[in-house]
Amino acid sequence: HATVPAGRVELFNGKDFSGWIFCSRTNTDPTLTWTVTNGVMRCTGQPYGYARTDKNFRDYKLTVEWRFVKVAPRADNTGVFVHVQPPDRVWPKCIECQGQYQHQGNLILMGGATCKGHATPESRAVRALAPQHEKAAGEWNTYEIESAGDRLKVYVNGRLMNEATECSLRSGAIAIQSEGGEFEVRKVLLEPLPAE
Fold first, then answer.
1. What's the predicted TM-score (pTM) here?
2. Phi, psi of 53 (to 5 degrees)
3. Residues paired with residue 173 on neighbouring β-strands, in sequence order
4. Are 97 and 107 in contact, with CB atoms under 8 Å apart?
5. Contact 104, 156 (CB under 8 A)
6. Could you tell me which of 48, 57, 20 has the C-alpha nearest to residue 36?
7. How far, in Å, CA of 15 to CA of 93, rounded?
8. Which of 59, 106, 56, 54 lies closest to 78, judged by CA?
9. Is the link from the previous residue into 194 a cis peptide, with omega within 30 of 0?
10. pLDDT for 140-157, tens place per residue?
11. How deeply is 185 buried, as exposed, middle or buried, from its count of CB atoms within 10 A (0-12, 13-18, 19+)?
12. What is the pLDDT of residues 150-179, one digit of tens each?
């Protein structure tokens, strides 16, 4: 069962990880990777894995505000997973909205997910359609993802970066990825889709 948001839903309450489930490559204690301090979710980036919602969602606008703590371009990597399918594993079947430094707005089709023009393992990377629009490390970025049926739109700091249609996945959990970069998240907000 997947929920369509009827109003604003704060998936991260700013206090703890209520409503979140953790998965990591090494089954490490998640509190060594994920913490909440002063209303901000912090991730060390190690080990690889993710924190995901314990509920499934579809047809929504998702807003995630994050920033990298320091500049280490080769290591600064994260992402937002949408339509995460069971079972939990590193990496699950889902669509990754890329969070890697200087690559935000790319999409990665994981675990056999497909979309129009990207139906093979070799074509699972959906490159951004617009020039990079990220802010410097230490500054907050706003990542907006609109999921409408089998379509996805991705915006970085207000710029439309990518679109995918005929996606094989239309609903699932939402996750924040731990993949090497130390970062902070201050907002994970779900809202109804804007009127067309």
1. 0.95
2. -70, 150
3. 84
4. yes
5. yes
6. 20
7. 29
8. 106
9. no
10. 999 999 999 999 999 999
11. buried
12. 999 999 999 999 999 999 999 999 999 999
- CA 148 – CA 5 distance, rounded (Å): 12
Let me know: does 92 contact 110? Beta carbons within 8 Å: yes
For 32, phi then psi, to 5°, come to -80, -20
Residue 110: pLDDT band by 50, 70, 90 thresholds?
very high
What's the one-letter identity of residue 76?
A: D
- Name the amino acid, one letter, at 186: R
The three-class DSSP label of residue 100 is: coil
- 185 neighbors 12 (Cβ within 8 angstroms): yes
Q: By CB neighbour count within 10 A (0-12 exposed, 13-18 middle, 19+ buried), where does 53 fall? A: buried
Whole-Å CA distances, 1 to 5, 11, 125: 13, 17, 28
